[in-house]
Amino acid sequence: MRGLFACVVAALTLIAAPVLAQQAPPASYYDNTGHPDAWAGGAKMVDIDTPKGKFRVWTKRVGNNPKLKLLLLHGGPGATHEYFEAFDSYLPREGVEYIYYDQLGSGSSDKPTDTDLWTTERFVEEVEQVRKGLGLTRDDFCLLGHSWGGILAIEYALKYQANVKCLVISNMMASIPAYNAYAQKTLMPAMDQKLLAEVKALEAAGKTSDPRYMEILVPMHYEKHILRRPQAQWPEPVVRSFSHLNGELYTLMQGPSELGASGRLEKWDRFEDLAKINVPTLVVAGTYDTMDPAYMASMAKKLPKGQYALMPNGSHMSMYDDQANYFAALARFFKPLK
Fold first, then answer.
1. Which residue among the candidates 74, 81, 146, 316 is catalytic per the annotation?
2. 31 belongs to the catalytic site
3. CATH number of the domain at 16-175+267-337, please?
4. pTM for this structure?
5. 289 an active-site residue?
6. Strand 166-170's sheet: what is its strand order?
């Protein structure tokens, strides 16, 4: 069985090889002419107006492509851009300009403590202000949202799709109730039921910060559905990003449980509204994801210009545990757009 698995992996690698062949980006990719952020290595703080005052968020441009500028929306809410750093090994040679961005409350951006700021609607307005602050337009502006970033990308496109050239929804379902149902009906029954009962008891007692909680969940859930490697082997950018998580923001919107959502996002559902998004959209799913891959395939069908890419070996962090296939799918999607 192990030998068969190795053969399948080798075959998939050969399929992806032509797309991911080593090649240098065009010289224009590194041309900083006209970029006022060049002196800072592409980094720029963008001013954000909110109902609670003015703040600043951190961004960093990599590369130069006048036809395709990809803004990366990280997950959480409350994680950071850092786990996207694997993109450095793939997107430059595809000639894709991309922009790291820490959302308000995260990473190197300002961290206000007023919890009234943590709403999906306000985050959408933040993304729009980032777009304007970076001078991005319908002719070049693309969004890639992963996990919570996928929710944010969908919401942004529903309000501001006139400003969007393309969209990538990575490892995120268009409905939190559907996500919770998948966890209840598919993921949890496959777990050790004695250990699952212990996890649920800790959640019911409000003890999700107890070390025992993650001691159970890491091998039973994280290493199977978040990133399919032993945690000791997780890539440094992922470990670093998770260590910088804004726990208050995360818990307020996602809820304390790692097996479903119960916070402000609990009733979020935009599946039917996907039909209103008319820009080219790629939906990326992982076979072993916390999100239902079959549901995500139905999302691609609902989108008027939807495409679907299943990562056969991937989980929620498919950009790491099915890396070759993940970036091959992005390269194919972006090729006619750049």
1. 316
2. no
3. 3.40.50.1820
4. 0.92
5. yes
6. 43-50, 53-62, 97-102, 69-73, 141-146, 166-170, 281-286, 306-311
